[in-house]
Amino acid sequence: MNAIIIKGRLTRDPEMRNTQTGKSVTNFSVAVNRRFQKDKADFFNVTAWEKTGEFVNKYFRKGQEIAVQGEMQSRDYTDHDGNKRNAWDLIASNVEFCGSKAD
């Protein structure tokens, strides 16, 4: 089973774009404080497709608290220097507001 739920704050504004086939995709990053080390955080790159991504792009901004449910997915790529790299992304299936309206 590949399931993950995180709760944290957006580290930047969401970025939405359209693929060549016309599907919308939104990328954003979430910082999650470690449970027993409050001065440390883990950072998750999140990808949200179509309606979920459109919702995030419309209602969330940098610094806001968010809960994300989805699955982890790895991808291989080549960086600008020609080195092969691996990255992990959280593919969001559900997102929810957290915190107060004042946040």
Written account of the structure:
The chain has 103 residues and is mostly beta strands. It has a 5-stranded mixed β-barrel. The chain contains 1 helix and 6 strands, in the order E-E-E-E-H-E-E. The longest helix has 10 residues, at 50-59. It has one helix spanning 50-59, and strands spanning 4-10, 15-18, 24-33, 41-49, 65-78, 84-97. It is globular.
Key structural traits:
56% strand; mainly beta; 6 strands; 103 residues; 10% helix
What oligomeric state do the depicted chains represent?
A: single chain
Largest sheet: 5 strands, mixed, barrel
Order of adjacent strands in the largest pleated sheet: 1-3-4-6-5
Task: Please tell me the overall pLDDT.
Answer: 94
Poorly predicted tracts of residues: none
Helix count equals: 1
Distance between the termini: 34 Å
Radius of gyration: 14 Å
Fraction of residues in H or I helices: under 10%
Total beta strands: 6
Structural class: mainly beta
Spell the H/E element sequence: EEEEHEE
Quote the beta fraction: over 45%
Which word captures the global form?
globular
Would you spell out the secondary-structure blueprint of this structure?
Blueprint (H helix, E strand, L loop, with lengths): L3 E7 L4 E4 L5 E10 L7 E9 H10 L5 E14 L5 E14 L6
Parallel strand pairs: 4-6
Antiparallel strand pairs: 1-3, 1-5, 2-3, 3-4, 5-6
